[in-house]
Amino acid sequence: MRRPFLKMNGLGNDFVVWDARDTRLVLTPEIIAKLGSRDTGIGFDQMITVERSTVSGVDAFMRIHNCDGSQVDACGNATRCVGRLLLEESGKDAVMIQTNAGLLSATAAGAPREITVDMGKPRVNWDQIPLAEEFADTRAIELQIGPIDDPILHTPAVVNMGNPHGIFWVKDIEAYDLSKVGPLLEHHPVFPEGANISLAQFIGKDEIRVKVWERGVGLTQACGTAACAVAVAAVRDTRAGRKSKIHLPGGILNIEWRESDSHVMMSGPTEIEFEGEVDLETIEWTKTAPGDNDQAQEATGGAA
Question: In which residues is substrate bound (predicted)?
């Protein structure tokens, strides 16, 4: 059976998006992992299934699987991508997306293909993140990796933005091999559900450079919930104001933690890379239509 899909990304954080509102789609973790492989499959950070919502007034339900087949509750960049699709399809000014982490609204940010998502309120209590033991202050918990007298990383801030995040403030994010320490910290016993691990470095007033090891994915070009978590942690520790620019390897996300209702607003670009079809029995896939950049190049006479 051949099934159409979209390949999209938000700042390089890439997804395969299925429309399952009319035709149900259920894939095993093994098939998802094969599709997610960058060597043998389509290759993606997350697989997104857009389904019909059972909640009145909600435009769609978004199901999220990591490239290893595990299911997660939230993905900020994927929410922006799905938000763009629903906004363009409906012609509405705002759409509501149901996730396992709650209801999220999406609106156009102003610039072409830029989308703002209301990510809701951050959760900062130890049992909301969750942590395996009680910490009175989650702005800097007792956790370190490396020798006791000379740890490599220590005292992260922890925040839940639909999934758990640990944030280590450092002077230079390039001074650490996140590909080595990320897996150890992701599965540290203090995080019973695992965690996304970020290194965060201030590069200017309210501007933070971030590198992310994403739970169930690995190193990623961008992580929307991590950007939100870093911005919230910076405000809580009086390191930054309510509005900040988060610089990720794939680009910049603008984050605002609103004082009026404590909601976190995330704005940034989206991209359709291409349209495709995949045979779900053989996992063979083909491109069927160009993406945003290809169409822009064709319109200007550039090479596709």
Answer: 13, 46, 66, 76-77, 163, 196, 214-215, 224-225
pLDDT digits (tens, 9 = 90+) for 236-275: 999 999 999 999 999 999 999 999 999 999 999 999 999 9
Is 196 flagged in the annotation as binding?
A: yes
Sign (positive/negative) of CA torsion 201, 215, 272, 112?
negative
d(CA 301, CA 304): 9
301 annotated to bind ligand: no
Count, residues in the chain: 304
Q: Which of 67, 81, 223, 228 is catalytic?
A: 223
Q: Which residues contact 127 (CB under 8 A, 6 or more apart)?
A: 134
* Bridge partner residues of 6 (DSSP): 17, 275
Q: Model confidence over 65-96: pLDDT tens digits? A: 999 999 999 999 999 999 999 999 999 999 99
Could you count the other beta carbons within 10 Å of the beta carbon of residue 254? 17
pLDDT at 294: 77
67 catalytic per annotation: no
Parallel, antiparallel, or unpaired: how do β-strands 71-72 and 94-99 relate? unpaired
> Does 242 count as an annotated binding residue?
no
Task: Give strand ranges (E) for the chain.
Answer: 2-10, 13-19, 46-51, 60-66, 71-72, 94-99, 102-108, 114-118, 144-145, 153-154, 157-160, 164-169, 196-204, 207-214, 218-220, 243-248, 251-257, 264-269, 271-279, 285-290
Exposed / middle / buried, residue 3 (Cβ in 10 Å: 0-12, 13-18, 19+): middle
**Are 87 and 48 contacting, i.e. CB atoms less than 8 angstroms apart?**
no
Nearest 5°: the CA angle 184, 16, 300 is 120
List the catalytic residue out of 67, 75, 81, 228: 75
- Buried b / exposed e over 198-237, threshold 16 CB at 10 Å, is bbbbbeeebebbbbbbbbbbbebbbbbbbbbbbbbbbbbe
Strands 164-169 and 157-160: antiparallel
Active-site residue 223, yes or no? yes
